[in-house]
UniProtKB/TrEMBL annotation:
This is Membrane-associated, eicosanoid/glutathione metabolism protein. It comes from the Eukaryota. Transmembrane segments: none annotated. Pfam families: MAPEG. Keywords: Membrane, Transmembrane, Transmembrane helix. GO terms for cellular component: membrane.
Length: 162
């Protein structure tokens, strides 16, 4: 906790939500840049693949789909991230080990949050930019690394809780 009284680790959860929607914003921007006008009165329908396909070049359509899929996957990862953050905060606040003796960050939560954002950023960029099958395994590696990182964070919280 900082001297301002805010728990920045807890605020990383809504920050991740905002971060997670950036591929959706990018998807819209590439459609608009290629002459497609989404209908804000019915955005889900106007941005569905069936509504977009054939109205922009195929390479743009493929990138749009990958960006939307990256955004969906980010949202699917939000509960895992939030639970790891909350488990760590609880472990740090409710144990004597967290209260005295192991420093300000006994679970390494600050490092986890920074690493999570870095890995997810690399995941998003690789998801959107890599369009071929062979190279797409780079994206899968980032995805797996994020899962391992979250699992390790849960382990550290569980170890502190005993």
């Amino acid at each position: 906790m900082s001297s301002s009284g805010l728990n920045y680790s807890l605020l990383s959860i809504p920050a991740y939500y905002v971060f997670a929607i950036t591929p959706h914003v990018y998807a819209n921007s590439i459609l608009i840049a290629n002459g497609y006008e989404p209908n804000n009165a019915n955005p889900k329908a106007s941005l569905s693949p069936s509504a977009v396909k054939g109205k922009v070049p195929d390479a743009v359509f493929q990138k749009y789909q990958r960006a939307e899929n990256a955004q969906s996957n980010n949202m699917e990862s939000l509960p895992l991230f939030a639970a790891a953050v909350l488990a760590s905060i609880i472990a740090e606040r409710t144990t004597l080990k967290g209260a005295a003796g192991l420093g300000d960050d006994p679970t390494g939560l600050t490092t986890f949050i920074g690493a999570w954002f870095a890995i997810r950023a690399a995941y998003m960029v690789s998801y959107v930019q890599i369009g071929d099958h062979q190279t797409s395994f780079i994206r899968s590696g980032f995805y797996a690394l994020g899962g391992v990182l979250a699992g390790w964070q849960f382990y550290k919280a569980a170890s502190l809780l005993g």
